[in-house]
Structure formats: structure tokens, C-alpha cells
């Protein structure tokens, strides 16, 4: 059972996400099965990469959580389960801990229908690296997600928000 302190923290995080989140989400328009057959940064998205800045369905909102996985996740998962809600988790490979230490949690979330997506391996600024460095960050995440979930990420959120269409 989640204590009042944990519930307040989850409520606070959710409120911040809903009120303050103006990050971009870059997504591919393919499904998980297709993603395993794609190669290269642009090939994964089938050419043009759509950038989502709002929900596509009027009157809807998205619960998104960045920078994990991390220890608070189990309390958050219980809250999402209790309300029959789904969320998007933009995860790092090595930020608050190693992604492989949270493999069971990620598999459970994925199997429950939550979106698991990339947020780079180590939460780097995309505008402070070369194409090769950025590509390496994304490749590390892809390899980890394939190893843990059996799929490549379909969506990506750039850490700190900035991105360039040519990266």
C-alpha cells in the first residue's frame, strides 16, 4: 500500500507533468513488430519523423514520465493500476540507475500496455554532441530495449527538450 507521502509525491509529479510538460515527443509511425526490421536513425521512422507537441485527440491528455526507471516506479505502477490508467515512460539506460536492474519492471509495464520509449542512454543534451555521439546514445537504448522487451523504441523524447530536425 502506498503511504500518504508516496501518494503526495506521485500526485505532485503527475500534476507537474500535466501542467508544465511542454517537451517534444518524436515518434515513428510504425508498430513494434515493424521496428525490429528497420535500420538507421531515419529508417526507423519510415522517412519523415513526426513531432508531437500536443495530444492528437481533442480533450485528451497524456501521462508521461521521464528519466527513469527509478525506485519510485513501483508506487507509481500501483497507482496507475488502481485507476486503470496507462502512461508513457521515456526511459534512460543509465541515469538514476542501470536499465538492466529494472528489466522486470519494464517488462511488466510493457505487458500491461504502457508505452516504453527512449530518452537517450545517459540523458544527454542533443545540441551538445556530434551526430555520431547522439546516434550512439540512441543505439545503446535500442539495444537495451530489444534485449529487455524484444522491441525497438517507437518514440523518443529529447532530454531537456531541444532537438534539431537533422539530428
UniProtKB/TrEMBL annotation:
List where the protein spans the membrane. Answer: none
Could you list this entry's UniProt keywords, alphabetically sorted: Carbohydrate metabolism, Glycoprotein, GPI-anchor, Hydrolase, Lipoprotein, Membrane, Metal-binding, Signal
Q: Where in the cell is it found?
A: Cell membrane
Signal peptide as annotated in the record = 1-27
Q: Which InterPro entries match?
A: Glyco_hydro/deAcase_b/a-brl, NODB_dom
**What cofactor requirement does the entry state?**
Co(2+)
Q: Does the keyword Metal-binding apply?
A: yes
Membrane topology annotation: Lipid-anchor; GPI-anchor
The UniProt entry's GO biological process terms, in alphabetical order, are:
carbohydrate metabolic process
Q: Which GO terms describe its molecular function?
A: hydrolase activity, acting on carbon-nitrogen (but not peptide) bonds; metal ion binding
Q: Name one GO cellular component term.
A: side of membrane
The residue ranges of the NodB homology domain are 59-167
**What is the protein name stated in its UniProt record?**
NodB homology domain-containing protein
Q: What species is given as this protein's source? A: Puccinia graminis f. sp. tritici
